[in-house]
Amino acid sequence: MTLATSACTPSCHRVKPQLSVTARLRLHMAAWRQRRQLSRLDDRALEDIGVTRAQADAEARGGFWKAPDHWSF
Asked: Would you give the DSSP letter of residue 46?
């Protein structure tokens, strides 16, 4: 099993995508939806993806505006 992180790989530091306002809004809404879904997972599902309840709760509390810079469409 692998552990996914939101850390940016070295290759994404070279060129940051320039997103339009609409694209950035979609990005933030996607982060909000994903965090909301993460908060609704039960302990068994969290165990399947290798995330503790504390980690899931901490991520779910993150604001929608805190999407990683390397996310793009």
From this structure: H
pTM: 0.61
Looking up tokens 């909000």, which residue turns up? 32
Are the C-beta atoms of residues 47 and 1 closer than 8 Å to each other? no
For residue 5, which amino acid is it?
T
pLDDT tens-digit profile of 40-67? Answer: 999 999 999 999 999 999 988 877 666 6
Among 58, 69, 63, residue whose Cα is nearest residue 31: 63
With respect to residue 23, please indicate whether it lies within any of the assigned structural domains. Answer: yes
> What range does the domain containing 31 cover?
18-60
Residue 56: name the closest of 67, 71, 41 by CA: 41
Report if residue 25 sits inside a domain.
Answer: yes
